[in-house]
Amino acid sequence: QIRDVQGRMEKPVLTVDDEILTRTGKLSGTEDVKPPSADKSFHVETEEKVRDTTSREESHMENLEECVVEHLDEDQILQDDNEKEQIKISQSKIREWSKGKEGNIRSLLSTLQYVLWPESGWKPVPLVNIIEGAAVKKAYQKALLCLHPDKLQQRGAAMHQKYIAEKVFEILQEAWKEFNSVTFG
Asked: What spans are recorded as compositionally biased (Basic and acidic residues) (predicted)?
């Protein structure tokens, strides 16, 4: 029945099997039907799109060549050197703080005030207050809130303070994983 309809129509009615034959040009009576990729207008359209894209990229490149280079003044250089020095100091401070406490979440939390800056918002937690697992979890969550990058951004923390927060955050997370695997695992 499909073949009868196909014979009477200008454009063939294709089934899934016929579509494959049409693309290869073997369907009886439809040799003039060509796949879309053989259509010249398709190729011309594609070539135009490629040319448009290429010319846009080239014009983008031309625009980049006209950019103004910003010159750094001495104050910026001094500030960058100061930041680098502060980060080096922070690295040694973090190493000193975490030394011997790796994986010990209670010790890390109870001494966190020694590595953080006064405006960090951290309130010291005595070791005796974090004996129970629930108390450890609560102190850990408070520490994460205090060290979270979004909170630091809101408070306008300096680069070295963000660095301290990031490294301390990582150390606490590792200790928390260990604590969780032993306590709740």
From this structure: 1-11, 40-62
Give the tens place of pLDDT for each residue, 115-137: 999 988 899 999 999 999 999 99
Q: What is the pLDDT of residues 81-114, one digit of tens each?
A: 888 899 999 999 999 999 999 899 999 999 999 9
Residues 6+ apart with CB under 8 A from 140: 105, 109, 172, 176
Residue type, 4: D
Angle, to 10 degrees, between the axis of helix 74-98 and the axis of helix 159-183? 20
HEC-encoded secondary structure of the chain: CHHHHHHHCCCCCCCHHHHHHHHHCCCCCCCCCCCHHHCHHHHHHHHHHHHHHHHHHHHHHHHHHCCCCCCCCHHHHHHHHHHHHHHHHHHHHHHHHHCCCCCCHHHHHHCHHHCCCHHHCCCCCCHHHHCCHHHHHHHHHHHHHHHCHHHHHHHCCCHHHHHHHHHHHHHHHHHHHHHHHHHCC
* Residue whose structure tokens are 């099997």: 17
What is d(CA 29, CA 33) in angstroms, rounded to the nearest whole number? 9
